[in-house]
Amino acid sequence: MKLKVLICSVISVFFFSNCQEKHKEDSIKANYLDFSKRDDQLTGGIKMIPIKTPKGTFKVWTKTVGNNPKIKVLLLHGGPGLTHELYECFDGYFPNESIEYIYYDQLGSYYSDQPNDNSLWTNERFVEEVEQVRKSLGCDNTNFYILGQSWGGILAMEYALKYQKNLKGLIISNMMASAPAYNKYAEEVLGPKLPKAVFDQIKTFEKNKDYTNPKYTELLFKYYYTEHILRMPVDQWPESINRAFKHINSNVYVYMQGPSEFGITGNASLKNWDVTAKLKTISVPTLVIGAKYDTMDPKHMEWMSKEVQNGRFLLCPNGSHLSQYDDPTTYFPGVIKFLKDVDNGEFKKA
């Protein structure tokens, strides 16, 4: 009799806890698009957040989509100097999962203030900017996730290395942990895969610093971009991507990344950036996303997922640098599963 009562009690507790969890999920879904209790209802989620810098206070543009007190994902765009528009395809995936996400143009990018001062374009200052954005949005380690792609991945790693205590989860998308390793991969692996005559022409343009030559651009788009940036014919590239490239701040991009598409070169400030030795200090749950045809070495990114303390690797077999667009059937399920696993306390490292 006692055993029967005990079994009934265990079943009741299990059933009750499951019902509570289901009620919470239903409540989040029901209130996902309710802006009535928010201070950004009139602007549809848009906030211009003031950012203090050594050169004064400026404003950065953010837009929050949805309400979820448990999962809030800040999207760090690439470039540097590109825009949140690189992530607009997330609208087709995250809302259906009731995931709150925040579009964000970093200082210097199109929708934010664009001060003309190169001393502002440092990793350390961008990290402090992200921290100020977090505080302004009211996120903390019970709900705050960062997803950074390309340069945004560099910024995500740098933020985690200083402020991981404020994170619930970290997603590093399509970015290696070392600029020199990225340069080597571009020069020794990707470049030689191009037709020799094409690669020779590209290197000649770069040697002569003739980066604005229309022929240089034409060769890159025809032979490199459609293989390793976004694997679609250029005339089929999504409008959001074309808009992002149209809005690029070339000054920020060239100062930090350099003018070449084969690695970070010249006097670019990121040329010697390398945090491979520091990855082991990152303990927050981490998803590293690589792609077979990426400009970044997927094997290096798989290594990164094992170097951090609690990492998982996602390979997009049909993807390139913008794998959210050319391999969404792998990218989004993998990202969503990571977010849900961490949120539910079910995350297991690879």
From TrEMBL:
One annotated Gene Ontology cellular component of this protein: membrane
Protein's UniProt name: Proline iminopeptidase
Keyword Hydrolase in record: yes
Superkingdom of origin organism: Bacteria
Span of the signal peptide: none
Organism of derivation: Flavobacterium xinjiangense
AB hydrolase-1 domain boundaries: 73-328
Family: Belongs to the peptidase S33 family.
Stored Gene3D superfamilies: alpha/beta hydrolase
InterPro entries to which the protein is assigned, alphabetical: AB_hydrolase_1, AB_hydrolase_fold, AB_hydrolase_sf, Peptidase_S33, Pro_imino_pep
Keywords: Hydrolase
